Structure to design on (112 residues):
């Protein structure tokens, strides 16, 4: 199973699409990213439980944020598997997701 590689590739693609302006996160995406970014700022490692908790309290999506939702759910599952998450591919995947969360949380909302 190549879950870590899939997560890393999807996070990298979303980072690129966001930087190029191809993908603009909606309010639910941004709020989830900000909540997880605030948790990351504490210096504690991200956990699957933390991701699921944030997603459970997120606003309902209008369907445009499904890529981010799917990515975060896959990341939560990866983090639940300690052996996989602690391996080089798992750490790289989580690092890419954290970079994406940083980019979304620190970016300005799109003009409406």
């Amino acid at each position: 199973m190549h879950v870590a590689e899939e997560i890393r590739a999807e996070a990298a693609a979303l980072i690129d699409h966001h930087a190029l302006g191809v993908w603009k996160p909606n309010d639910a995406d941004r709020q989830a990213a900000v909540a997880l970014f605030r948790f990351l700022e504490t210096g504690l490692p991200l956990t699957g439980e933390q991701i699921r908790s944030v997603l459970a309290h997120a606003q309902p999506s209008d369907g445009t944020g499904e890529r981010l939702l799917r990515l975060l759910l896959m990341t939560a599952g990866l983090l639940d598997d300690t052996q996989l998450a602690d391996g080089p591919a798992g750490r790289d995947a989580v690092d890419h997701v954290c970079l994406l969360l940083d980019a979304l949380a620190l970016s300005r909302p799109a003009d409406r």
In short: The longest helix spans residues 88-106. The mean pLDDT is 89. The radius of gyration is 13 Å. The chain has one domain: 3-106.
